[in-house]
């Protein structure tokens, strides 16, 4: 399934994976609507692409989300690629920061997609791509706020998969491992198989083209999380501790 000639809305497009996805989708001939908070970064990006426009807004602002959905107009596809992350343990728990992460990563998606998906159902066409994370498959150390927000996004994708059956609207969830972005710049631990944003974007593009509901990458790192879902939690955490020594 090609994105050439289609209009896609990338939310979280100013930096990192979303920015690389915008470049990859534009190279394939998609028309783009680009969103995030930083209007200048979006406009710089849009100016370098063939057919792209910026709609800057904050996904945690309900009114701005509704206005942005109207400004984006009917789209063939939407990618929710917003990400906020601070390494946080039970010992370093900052409640305001944890809630800000959940607001941006999950509540923002609930709000925004509520403006987009029903209209796709009426048109009987559309594609919804949610960016999850390997960190959403199971509870990990140091991921208070972030881990649960990604698990929630991945669960939302399953809700949509059930509800959208037979409507002409498709949903996919893509769960990356570590990507070299400002999010992971905050990590002080070893990050196996970390990849540049362009490489991760190419994997997401492949997943979109393939049409499979759920994709986790990169292998073999992703296998630990996919198989880990079936392990007792204590065994999974013991494996993680051993791997990080
Ligand atoms: N990096 C990784 O290792 C990794 C691994 C797995 C999954 N992911 C996921 O990949 C996605 C992209 O993350 P990234 O690593 O590329 O991070 P990033 O470089 O920090 O990009 C995050 C994007 O989200 C936007 N954003 C953040 N808060 C927002 C808000 N309140 N309203 C609107 N836009 C907002 C940011 O733009 P503004 O600051 O301009 O608003 C930026 O465009 C996220 O869903 C993340 O969870 C990342």
What shape does the CA trace take? globular
Ions, cofactors, ligands: which are bound? NADP nicotinamide-adenine-dinucleotide phosphate
Q: What separation lies between the terminal Cα atoms? A: 42 Å
Secondary structure tally: strands: 7
Number of helices: 8
* CATH top level label: Alpha Beta
Return the domain count: 1
Q: Would you identify the CATH H-level superfamily?
A: NAD(P)-binding Rossmann-like Domain
The radius of gyration over CA amounts to 17 Å
Strand content: 5-15%
User: Mean pLDDT, rounded to whole units?
Assistant: 97
Query: Would you list the SSEs in sequence order as H and E?
Result: EHEHEHEHEHEHEHH
- Chain oligomer state: single chain
Main sheet?
7 strands, parallel
Helix vs. strand class: alpha/beta
Q: Which residues form runs of ≥5 with pLDDT under 50?
A: none
CATH topology: Rossmann fold
Named CATH architecture = 3-Layer(aba) Sandwich
Helical proportion? 40-55%
Q: What layout of secondary structure does this protein have?
A:
Layout: E1 7-11, H1 16-27, E2 31-35, H2 39-47, E3 52-54, H3 62-72, E4 77-80, H4 95-123, E5 126-131, H5 146-163, E6 169-175, H6 197-210, E7 214-216, H7 221-228, H8 233-244
Helix pairs in contact: 1-6, 3-4, 4-5
Would you mind describing this structure in some detail?
This protein has 245 residues and is α/β, with parallel strands linked by helices. The protein has one domain: Rossmann fold, CATH 3.40.50.720. 46% of the residues lie in helices and 13% in strands. It contains 8 helices and 7 strands, in the order E-H-E-H-E-H-E-H-E-H-E-H-E-H-H. The chain has a 7-stranded parallel sheet with strand order 3-2-1-4-5-6-7, sandwiched between helices. Helix 4 links the parallel strand 4 and strand 5. Helix 1 crosses helix 6 and helix 3 runs parallel beside helix 4. The chain is globular and about 50 Å long. The termini are far apart. The model has no long low-confidence stretch (mean pLDDT 97). The structure holds NADP nicotinamide-adenine-dinucleotide phosphate (NAP). NADP nicotinamide-adenine-dinucleotide phosphate binds next to helix 1.
